[in-house]
Amino acid sequence: MTTIAMGRLKQLEVQEYALAIVVVLIFAAGAILEPDTFPTWDNVRNMLTQASVVGVLAIGLTFVIATAGIDLSVGSMVAAAGVFGGIMLGDEGTSTLVFIASAVLFATGLGTINAVAVAYGRVVPFIATLAMFSIGKGIALLLNDKLPVSLLDLNGGSFGDPKVGSLLWFGNGRILGIPVSVYVFLAVTVAGWVLLNRTRYGRFVVAVGGNREAARIAGVPVRRIIFSVYVLSGILAGVATVLLCARLGSASPVSGNLYELDAIGAVVIGGTSLAGGRASIVGTFLGVLTFALIFSLMTQMNLSTEVQQVTKGAIVLGAVLLQRPEARY
User: Fold this and answer.
1) Residue 329 within any structural domain of the chain
2) What Rg, from alpha-carbon coordinates, does the chain have?
């Protein structure tokens, strides 16, 4: 490992530790400012349930951004995949498996279109995924004539006590008091960490983002790696679709709105470089928790949505400035 690579790794570890401290400090501040509601288990559980959707998207985006790419379309993929899964059930559809398979496969298909455009069509990732952002929104509105699709027939129980294996169980069920969606998020996070840090594929992803030409000379299949990260982003958008629709009990053409910005923000403050070549799954996980804590606290303090949006933008901007001081001039 080169001196530069070791330096980047050490910097990444420092950022992870610092972000972990930030998470603890935010939680402590919330417990002081809103002692009756913020530190309660019910609030923590609700916060983690909501964060799990963005968290799954963020893990996929970590791989994309590690290659110096971007995916602005994951939010619209969630909307389109949810509505598609809903209409595939028909008027009398009651199969949770049909919905899950349809949503995941549809989102994967949209991600594959991005992958082909970027890896083989050589379209700039920003443009390709911005186009898919618009396409996904349009598909979501067209599929069911701008109307949401109710998924309550897939319940098999109620929001408070959904039957194990039913769709709502994935969004509202609990195992040992912890939401099922949180287990899914944790499983995706662990799998992402292993894939990025303990496999040759993960090394290839980082190498492509660090220096594409050097990676090509070293024998890395650059196009296939770039293709794969956008497909992976699509697959995880499908998983996020299932979690979101399961929590809401419906699939709406406006669901997932701006989720891509939340996910990208979590990845950036987690230490993954927008220029590629440096990525942290642990940092992304902590970034998701950071955003979840901040917005839960601001909501309980009755701060307006506008203030929350300004805060989110300021956090992302500050993270980028701290992350790449060498790029300032």
Assistant:
1) no
2) 20
Using DSSP, state whether 179 is helix, strand or coil.
strand
* pLDDT tens track for 101-110: 999 999 999 9
* 40 found inside a domain: yes
Structural domain boundaries, residue 131: 3-322
Q: Which residues contact 88 (CB under 8 A, 6 or more apart)?
A: 98, 99, 102
* CATH assignment of the domain containing 95: 1.10.3470
> Is there a domain that residue 290 lies in?
yes
> What domain count does the chain have?
1
Q: Give the single-character DSSP code of 36.
A: T
State the burial class of residue 178 (Cβ atoms within 10 Å of its Cβ: 0-12, 13-18, 19+).
Answer: middle
Report phi then psi at 250, rounded to 5: -160, 165
Sign of CA dihedral 283, 205, 317, 289: negative
User: Which long-range contacts link 100-106 to residues 24+ away (Cβ below 8 Å)?
Assistant: 100/167, 100/242, 103/238, 103/241, 103/242, 103/245, 104/235, 104/238, 104/239, 104/241, 104/242, 105/238, 106/80, 106/81, 106/238
Residue 319 or residue 18, greater confidence: 18
Structure tokens at 34: 């809103």
Here the tokens at position 282 are: 């642990």
pLDDT digits (tens, 9 = 90+) for 59-74: 999 999 999 999 999 9
Closest C-alpha to 223, from 15, 47, 67: 67
Q: Would you say residue 328 lies in a domain?
A: no
Tokens of 296: 């839960």
- The arithmetic mean of pLDDT across residues 69-89, rounded, is 94
